[in-house]
Beta-lactamase family protein
Amino acid sequence: MPTLDETRLERIKPWMQGYVDERKFAGSSVLVQQAGQEVFYHDTGFRDVAGGTSFARDTVARIYSMTKPVTSLALMMLVEEGRIHLDAPLSAVLPEFKDMHALVPGATSMDQVERAPVPTLHQTVTHTAGFSYPFNPGVLPRAMEAAKLLFGPSEGSLEEVTRRLAQMPLAFQPGTRWEYSVGIDVIGRVVEVLSGQSLDAFFQTRIFDPLGMTETGFAVPQDALDRFASLYTPLASGAMALNNAQTKSADTLRCVDVAEKSPFRAPRTLSGGGGLVGTIDDYMRFCEALRTGGQSLVSPATLRFMMANHLPGEIADMGPSSFAEQPMTGMGFGIGGSTVLNPARTRTPSSVGDFSWGGMASTFFWIDPVHDLSVVFFTQLSPSSSYPARPELKALIHGALP
C-alpha cells in the first residue's frame, strides 16, 4: 500500500509554480506512482507561452535522452533472445566499425591518433566506448559539432549518420573512461540490423504496443500537434550550445522550437539516444514495466541486470569531463541509465539502487526499488543543467516518505 504522506506531497505544487512564476520553466507536470497506484499528479504553466495553452496531462513533450533506456531495453530483448552478446565487438553487427583509431592522450588535433580495439556493445551502451557528443569539451566533440553529428532529427537515416560517425576516431581507448555520448544512438542501429526492422517499427511492435504507449514515437502525429509543447532555452547561442552556456539570453524563456515548424513532425533520423516524443502517462507505463519486472518484455532477472552498476565503481572514478544528466559521485551506470550506489555521496536524498535518467529538455524519471516508487517529471527547457530541479524534486518526494 502507498506510504507517502499526502500533505507533504502537496509541497510539490508551490515548488512547481515557483519555477513558472520566476520564468524558469514555461510549464511542467509531475506524476508519482507507488506500488502501482497513482499517489500524486500535478501540472502547471504553459506548453506554449505565446499561445497561452496549458501544460496538461496530455501534453506531448520531447523526452530526448530519456529515449536511451528504451533503446537499451530493446538491445537487452535481443540479447535475451540469443541474437548477440554484450561482449561482441560493434563490428560483428556494423562492419563500418572494424578498423578503429582513438585520439592519443592530450591530442590537440584530429590527426593525432593511435590504433584502438573495436568497442564492444557493452562499452557502447555504458558510455565507455570512446564516443562523445558535440556539446562535450574536447577535440572530438568540436569535430562532431563542425560535422553536425548529433543524431538530431534532420541529419539523415540512422544508417547514414552511424556510418559518418564510424569515420571519426574515438575520444579515448575503449574501456578507459566514461563519457556521455552518442553510443546509444549506435545501439539503435544495432537493434535495426539484428532485428531486421527499422527502430521505430521495433519500438512500436515490441515495446509500445505491448505496454499501451499509444502517444509515444519519433514523430508528432498531425492530430497531436495542438498538444505538442514548445521548447525553450535561457541561452543566447542555442538550446544545445553547452560549451557556451555562460552566454545567457535576456529572455529566460526564449522559444527555439514550436509545433508547426518542428523537425519532430517528420524526423529523418531515428535517434535511439534522443529522438522520442510522448506523454507523461506513456512514459510512466515504461517506468512501471521496468519497476515491476518487464511485463513479459524481458525477464525480471534481465531487468535487475540492466539496473545494476556496470562500471568498476562510481562514474566519477572514470574521470568524466563530459556533460551528463546526473551527478557523478555516488552514482554508477547500468544499461542505459544511472544507479545510486551511495545516496550520501550523490548529495541528493535517494535510495540505494534508484535507477534514473533525464533528457536535455529537463525531463527526468527515477525508479526507487526500496519504496516501490516510479516518478516522471516533464518540462521543456534546454539545457537540463539550467536549474537544480531534479535534486529538488527528489528531496520533496523523499520528504514525504515515512
About this structure: The CA atoms of residues 236 and 398 lie 35 Å apart. The longest strand covers residues 37-48. The longest helix spans residues 68-80. The chain is about 25% helix and 15% strand.
